[in-house]
Write a structure and sequence with these properties.
This protein is α/β, with parallel strands linked by helices. It has twelve helices and 16 strands. Strand 1, helix 1 and strand 2 form a beta-alpha-beta unit. The protein is globular. The two termini are 34 Å apart.
Length: 338
């Protein structure tokens, strides 16, 4: 089994660790935590705990949390590191990974140049085969690539125009305090457009992002210009063939992000996560060469299956379709929630 170390155990790191633990071809060698907080205590029941450097050991010892070593030791105990450290920290860690000659996966908060390839399981899995350093694109970019990729495969997409209505912060983040504002990005395109083009080969992409005071999900309003006409039914049929996208209806009560997340709780998802991208059926509209729809993205979890598939691509454990199928099965991603 492939030994996977998780450097950083925050919103994404703890979910990636859980997802890796569900696989039968890989295992979690350990996680890096910086503070001996309640998360560390809970995690220590399941995973080996490491610290960034020797200086942090005493804090954990004083808190009664057993430490197996520092980041250097985790690297020795692993075959790949999934770097889930705060935005920008991955760039610092890259030198360490290169010096220690270990492969690494970075998250979408890092610049694309940090890695040999950016990754989305549906749109460009094969571009990361055999690579040493890969970046899984951000939650927003993952959400766009997930729904656009099957349409591009079947009908061709020549232009993307998307408005991203972004959550202000994650649910467990109290550091920013209450927010009473709507904050638009002040340049066109927003950074999501060039990011999407690293994983999806579409000639023209325009995006704008608007941050709003919610913590639940992102919402995307997407307009595509198609090479070949695709009806609303065509689009829905294309999405129905991909388990990481599902079409929901507002008519049965799921008309907002609050209800979508409540659905995830009701069906018993781990951490109430929704790995799939939810597209509202009523929003799907076709007119001439244009196709429009509205989708919701759970920013805490949609990139998690991508990290698992990125590991398999790097180590050539399975081809694209088999890896996606294996990941989906292990994580309960069925393509039909209710």
């Amino acid at each position: 089994m492939l030994r996977v170390g998780i450097n950083g155990y925050g919103t994404i790191g703890k979910r990636v660790a859980h997802a890796v633990s569900l696989q039968d071809d890989m295992k979690v060698s350990g996680i890096v935590k910086t503070k001996p907080d309640y998360i560390s205590k809970i995690a220590s029941r399941e995973f080996n705990i490491y610290v960034p450097d020797r200086a942090a050991e005493k804090k954990f010892d004083d808190a009664g949390i057993k430490i197996k070593g520092d980041l250097g030791k985790l690297i020795e105990d692993s075959e790949v590191i999934v770097d889930c450290t705060p935005e920008g920290k991955g760039e610092e860690n890259l030198k360490t990974y290169k010096d220690k000659k270990i492969r690494a996966i970075f998250q979408g908060g890092e610049e694309a140049g940090i890695a040999e390839s950016s990754f989305n399981a549906y749109s460009n899995f094969n571009e990361s085969i055999g690579k040493s350093f890969v970046r899984v694109v951000s939650c927003n970019t993952t959400g766009l690539a997930r729904t656009i990729s099957p349409l591009n495969d079947q009908f061709g997409v020549k232009r993307v125009n998307a408005t991203l209505i972004r959550r202000a912060t994650d649910q467990n983040d109290s550091s920013k305090g209450p927010i009473n504002a709507v904050e638009p990005s002040l340049k066109f395109p927003s950074h999501h457009a060039p990011d999407l083009k690293t994983v999806l080969h579409v000639p023209d992409v325009e995006t704008v992002a608007i941050k709003v005071p919610t913590t639940l999900m992102h919402v995307h309003v997407v307009e595509l210009t198609m090479d070949r006409k695709a009806t609303a039914e065509d689009a829905i049929n294309a999405w129905n063939q991909r388990k990481r996208v599902f079409v929901i209806s507002g008519k049965d009560g799921r008309s907002s992000t609050a209800q979508i997340m409540d659905m995830a709780r009701e069906i018993g998802r781990d951490r109430s996560d929704l790995y799939e991208i939810a597209v509202w059926k009523e929003s799907v509209n076709s007119s001439g060469e244009k196709l429009r729809y509205v989708q919701a993205v759970h920013q805490e979890s949609d990139v998690v299956p991508e990290n698992v598939d990125a590991i398999r691509a790097m180590f050539q454990l399975l081809p694209q379709d088999e890896s996606i199928k294996k990941t989906d099965h292990s994580m309960g991603i069925s393509g039909s929630v209710i």
